[in-house]
Amino acid sequence: MELNTQTDLVARSLRSVWHPCTQMQHHAAHDNTVPLIPVSHGRGAWLYDHEGRRYLDAISSWWVNLFGHANPRINAALKDQLDRLEHAMLAGFTHEPVVQLSEKLNALTGGVLGHCFYASDGASAVEIALKMSFHAWRNSGLADKQEFVCLKGSYHGETIGALAVTDVALFKDAYGPLLRATQTVISPDTRRAAEGESEQDVARRAAADVELLFQQRGDKIAAIIIEPLVQCATGMAMHDPLYLKLVRELCDRHQVHMILDEIAVGCGRTGTFFACEQAGIWPDFVCLSKGISGGYLPLSLVMTRDDIYQTFYSSDVTRGFLHSHSYTGNPLACRAALATLQIFEEDDVLAQNQLRAARLTAALAPLAEHEQVRHFRQRGMIWAFDAIDAAPDFSRRFFTAALQKELLMRPIGSTVYMMPPYILDDAEIDGLAAGTLAVFNQVMAGQ
Ligand SMILES: Cc1ncc(COP(=O)(O)O)c(C=O)c1O
């Protein structure tokens, strides 16, 4: 059977592949509300199908791709690594890529988060941070600290533990009976500002909710988990850095760990390498994944403080963190991450992104001022706005219409967002803004 014709690939994929986060019937011929696009290859910010059509990857392939597809520098590093060591187990063994990566990440936190524990997907990193927090308290004689706190609208992944600290009904409700109860506090989402409230007022009000909970149950709570600055999956809900500073103080006062899930917002996405730098704080745990490997290979990790690490350090094996994954610290993934960090250093990426961000924000002015748009917002390399009175199928219709304009964009409900790779040139930035406006007008006119 031919492998490379477009229709053939779609039919075969629908017969044998169960696609993620998808109601498969939406791809069926009689219900074809969402097209399935076979990708033949990628180059830079573009993905190409088998019939020569191309799509600007405006969402970095689920927020992972930082420096484009088939990036020559990351490719070269991986080819070199392939001939040296593809994988070795990390228990009882170590290797240069994992050591170098841990050292570099440690240095990026000024040595505060000195120990890196590795896994593959984001959700695994969240599981690790939750387990580590509980176990660290247990090792410290505070075994009653077993509860976790998350924010309204939070998203931390799909595995059972990560889903328990997630607050997106669409993903969570079906599995409710399987999940541990979690305490949920209000979100500092600036869109929730009451009349006359500033963004900082919202941050203070949300922190007061945390304080109340900590006063009531602090002795039972192990950790609060937060997506710093932008709660992405709930619809790019942004908040003021003050919130993180206030919660950090509360965590210190009430002996509660602060876990920052920087899986989506880390690696420069919000303008600083770690989002929490904008609040001038470090948490007790940082989870990283997605962009850390440049979007090449599944790699996630949890960084933690030395005092937490020390609670596990003992002659007693059961006080150790006996967690593992077969591919923990995979050398290829670590090497891709090292190549990614090298690009940050060599290309002064954070400074260059400020120029890109200013240009795209200016180009998006017609959308920011559009009468059917509210809450236009931007932080670093994330842009979002909400469509007023969007139809229930807005997101699917936008996705399909965007493809016709060579754009890969998947709105979340009525929120349109952009999270492009950090390589767009001026023409691509202008094309993205003009295309988004055209698609938005088309979809809003047709509903
Ligand atoms: C903030 C956040 N945490 C965790 C995850 C889960 O990561 P993964 O899909 O790699 O398991 C995601 C994925 O979108 C995320 O945005």
TrEMBL record:
Record-annotated site: Participates in the substrate recognition with KAPA and in a stacking interaction with the adenine ring of SAM: 21
A GO MF term: adenosylmethionine-8-amino-7-oxononanoate transaminase activity
Keywords of this entry: Aminotransferase, Biotin biosynthesis, Cytoplasm, Pyridoxal phosphate, S-adenosyl-L-methionine, Transferase
Pathway the protein acts in: Cofactor biosynthesis; biotin biosynthesis; 7,8-diaminononanoate from 8-amino-7-oxononanoate (SAM route): step 1/1
Superkingdom in the source lineage: Bacteria
Chief location category: cytoplasm
Name of the protein in question: Adenosylmethionine-8-amino-7-oxononanoate aminotransferase
Gene from which the chain derives: bioA
